[in-house]
Design brief:
The chain is mainly alpha-helical. It is built from 17 helices and no strands. It starts with 5 loop residues before the first helix and ends with a helix. The mean pLDDT is 85.
Length: 481
């Protein structure tokens, strides 16, 4: 891809951020609508979990395929296809007659969403070649997540209260169509110098692993061991088979060589932990504010602003810190703030007081605002530009898998402890183990971030990048010969 002018690069960044806004806004808006969905569609707690996890699971399962396919056949081509499918899926969701149909249409959305975020990040990586410019661009990209968290609860609450939950999917239609037109007009096509072959076996193993693991977790409180244990066994067998198969394949779906880089491996663990915390935090907060405090969707959205605004404000600051000083400081701030937020709820029952509830939300928002930029920058910076799509897809997969597991685990803990006959009275006590789990996720961000951002870790990243570059040069030379 030829070098673009500064103005054109900023325009490409804005278009890519529109796609992220679509995917991120959809999740935050849906969380606010969960109690309304629960009433209108007569959904159980596990049903609510599936409305979220059906999307994040399919998204996580297909992100790496979308990233490698975009590197192979063209990033703009895959990106535009994703916009079309996502917008169509949003329309279908707004027309869903029951919970089962809504879950099915959410998977259609996810197929489109899988072609957006990793491909957009690959486009950004190949557009902003200067490391500092790239870090700032990624900071702006992360700020969009904060924007979606700030706007999502308010927009969603207003729409749910005034029109109904179906309207939350309508907002994707004009944004998706606008992004499609701008992409066709301004985003240049790009692809990897050497096309990677498809890996259908690896893809099926990823789907089996993610799907069976999440099903076992979500259904554990309601189903017998004879039902959940086989799914757990399938997940374990799929993981073992995936590691063995991918390590022997010449062009794997998941290039295990990436994980020889300590920063890349650390970014993967941090992404899973941080987004598991986000998924669980939003799930608990939404149900608490509306089902326990009795607030309307709009009022609940206003209460979540102390979490959303710090995320929006801290994300670009994190991007600048990563560009100027590296990822260590933002990761330490993120891990410390998220751990403190979890402890405030787990030890001091922050939700029982307005003041402590706001403090807990602010701490979590600060932590999540700082965590996105170092994850993404670390994932793509040490990799060859030709494999930017695959590397960013692994990071995006880690995020979505983390969010799916967070909702699954926290929802299962909540479902096991809540007494349906006295929901409001039992919710606070039933949610306590969930807050401890979220505290552990924050602590994982802190510890892993500190451990994988030092000099020795950067040395492993350099060695990994050199080996990947050398291997890529040999492969291209062999193909030319």
């Amino acid at each position: 891809m030829s070098e673009l002018s500064p103005r054109r690069r900023l325009l490409v960044l804005a278009i890519c951020c529109m796609s992220l806004l679509l995917v991120s806004l959809d999740n935050t808006v849906l969380n606010v609508a969960l109690p309304s969905l629960q009433r209108d569609l007569d959904a159980s707690t596990s049903g609510l979990q599936w409305t979220i996890d059906a999307y994040t699971l399919v998204l996580a399962s297909l992100l790496m395929l979308a990233g490698s396919t975009a590197d192979r056949i063209g990033r703009r081509r895959v990106f535009t296809a994703g916009l079309v499918v996502f917008t169509l899926g949003s329309l279908l969701c707004s027309l869903a007659p029951n919970l089962e149909a809504l879950v099915a249409f959410r998977t259609v959305q996810a197929v489109g969403g899988s072609m957006l975020n990793p491909v957009a990040m690959s486009i950004i990586t190949n557009t902003f070649t200067d490391p500092r410019e790239r870090a700032r661009a990624i900071g702006a990209w992360g700020a969009v997540v904060g924007l979606s968290m700030a706007a999502g609860p308010l927009v969603g609450g207003l729409l749910v209260d005034s029109v109904g939950w179906r309207s939350i999917f309508w907002i994707n239609l004009p944004v998706g169509l606008a992004a499609l037109v701008l992409t066709l007009r301004f985003v240049p096509e790009s692809r990897a110098p050497k096309a990677r072959r498809a890996d259908p076996v690896g893809q099926l193993l990823v789907i089996a692993l993610f799907g069976s693991l999440t099903y076992a977790i979500i259904e554990a409180p309601h189903a017998s061991l004879s039902t959940t244990v086989p799914f757990g066994a399938v997940a374990l067998a799929s993981l073992v088979a995936l590691l063995r198969y991918e390590s022997r394949r010449h062009e794997p779906l998941i290039d295990l060589r990436f994980f020889r880089s300590a920063p890349f491996s650390g970014a993967t663990v941090i992404a899973v932990s941080a987004f598991a915390s986000l998924g669980g935090f939003l799930f608990l907060s939404t149900l608490y504010l509306q089902n326990v405090r009795g607030l309307s969707a709009l009022e609940a959205g206003l209460w979540m602003l102390p979490m959303a605004l710090p995320t929006f404000l801290c994300a670009p600051l994190s991007g600048r810190l990563v560009g100027n000083r590296g990822p260590r400081l933002p990761l330490l701030i993120a891990g410390g703030a998220m751990t403190a937020a979890g402890l405030l709820f787990a030890l001091f029952e922050a939700e029982t007081s307005n003041a402590t509830l706001v403090v807990g939300y602010v701490l979590f928002g600060v932590g999540f605002g700082f965590v996105n930029a170092p994850i993404t920058n670390t994932a793509v910076s040490g990799m060859p530009r030709a494999q930017a799509g695959v590397a960013s897809a692994v990071a995006s997969t880690s995020r979505q898998l983390g969010q799916a597991l967070g909702v699954a685990v926290i929802g299962a803990v909540l479902a096991a402890g809540v007494d349906s006959s006295s929901y409001a009275e039992s919710f606070t006590e039933a949610s306590r183990p969930g807050w401890w789990i979220l505290t552990a996720c924050g602590l994982a961000v802190l510890v892993v971030g500190a451990a994988t951002s030092g000099r020795w870790a950067r040395a492993t990243a350099r060695r990994t990048a050199e080996r990947l570059e050398s291997a890529e040069i040999r492969e291209v030379a062999g193909a030319d010969a």
